[in-house]
Amino acid sequence: MEIEKGKTAKYLKEKRPVPKQVTEQLKYFTKIKKNILNALKEGDKTVPQLAEVLNLPKDEVLFQLMSLLKYGFVETGEIDDMDEFFYYKIKSNGKN
Amino acid sequence: MQEPKKILKYDVLVIGGGIAGGESAINLANLGYKVLLVEKELSIGGKMILLSKVFPTLDCAACITTPKVSEIARHPNITIFTSAEVTEITKKDEHQFEAIVLQKPRYVNVADCTGCQLCEQACPVNVTDEYQYGLVGRKAAYIPFSIASPRAAAIDIDNCTLCGACERACPTKCIDFTQTDEEYLVKVKSVVVATGFKLFDPLKIPRYGFDKCKNVITSMQMERELAPTRPFNTILRPGDGKMPDNIAYVLCTGSRDKSVGNPICSQICCMYSIKQAQLLMGALPMADITIYYLHIRAFGKGFNEFYAQAQDMGVEFVKGKVGKISEKENGNLILRYEDIEEGVVKEAEHDMVVLSVGVLPNQGIDEVFDNQKLQLDPFHFVNQSDILASPAKTSIEGVFVAGTASGPMDIPDSILSGGAASAETTSYLRRANQ
Fold first, then answer.
1. b vs e for B379-391, b when ≥16 Cβ sit within 10 Å of the residue's Cβ?
2. How far is A19 from chain B (nearest CA, A)?
3. Is the CB of B240 inside 8 Å of chain A's CB atoms?
4. Which of A23, B118, B205, B375 has the greatest number of beta carbons closer than 10 A?
5. Residue ranges of domains in chain A
6. pLDDT score recorded for residue A5
7. Cβ contact (<8 Å) for B161 and A23?
8. Last-in-domain residue among B326, B359, B392
9. Whether ipTM exceeds 0.90
10. Considering only the top CATH level, what class is A9-90?
């Protein structure tokens, strides 16, 4: 089989199917990313506020939110009046 | 067994690319010896490259490590294999060793990768970042961390959906999913074992609530929170993103504890906890830091002064043995402990707890030697057969030990040990030429 440089993923996919849990994991992240970004479009939110809106555990929201911060979708806003929780917002320069 | 494909020849095989192995490799290379450095991770630099600062000087760990790592990576006498493991070593004769090295696929041609991170941006996957100790996600196509050496992408094939987005984004077409395991037969004259240590897994002490209570973290997780390349925007509780203001340290987690099979002192936990406490007081000026300890072992140069400095800064030291950590509804933690000085059981509330986890041996290196016995000490570290006169010597003539492979030690001692191993290796190699 001729393998074209730059298109080798196809070659491995034929030899080794992608496990179901990997595709499920991708679906989950895509969904949670969309939900977090939609919630933040409505206004800046803290982790507990996001957890309440999304009905998810706070630690899970923090993990996913910090990933989105790392990937450049989200940025840090002001801290709340009690100096406890930061607000997070959609990054002003848009997409990654 | 399948025949190894390629035969390589070097003077010395150094197993482990942390600071001790790196120090040995660079010393030997500077003397003109050809060195093969084999590292199981994607980057050399060991655990030190992931630290925030070092004690007792509070120097930036990356500022010390990166020039060293760069020197190792660029040295003409050093060849580095990352994502590789030594699976077998046979001593054929004096000054003749044969090793089998298994090179695992990175799915990226490192020489062509520019570290542009376009593959990382294109990858749709999000999985736990092990280099941030699980605090944040990373992509399946990723550069392990920003100061990794080599600073090249890798594909986490177990979590990759093989969508091909990384390949389409790569400007140099360096991603290659056709890569497979490669075996090498490496002929060397001497071996340096610098396999480092692993950290105690706090899940082995369920009463400390690690994993169950989300605001109980390990010291290495706090180290990442304090590092400039931190996982969060600042120091936050992983349970809910609150900025903590009352942090407790539980020393001797998994050290000096027969019940978890590790009765010895890890030598570094007191000082790294004191270091982190000082850094936290700088990062969170309003925070209270309490350290629960059995004994503070500040034995090294400048250590006691460093301990006194933490006390002067307002870090509270409580001589107490923590028995149990439980979580309140608001995520705060109740520590039930024995106040050793007063002889009573007390409870205290903190909003975050750091478990100062101990140092354990990276086991398995003795099984690599097939016709010689690499002796281990009673705690499964590599035994130093002549600890006073020749500290790098092992039970096998021509095999030397460097750094924490021989027991818990701090960074300066690891570098000294790496230096000792290179000196003793040189002496052994010179004898071959006489």
1. ebbbbbbeeeeeb
2. 8
3. yes
4. B205
5. 9-90
6. 83
7. yes
8. B359
9. yes
10. mainly alpha
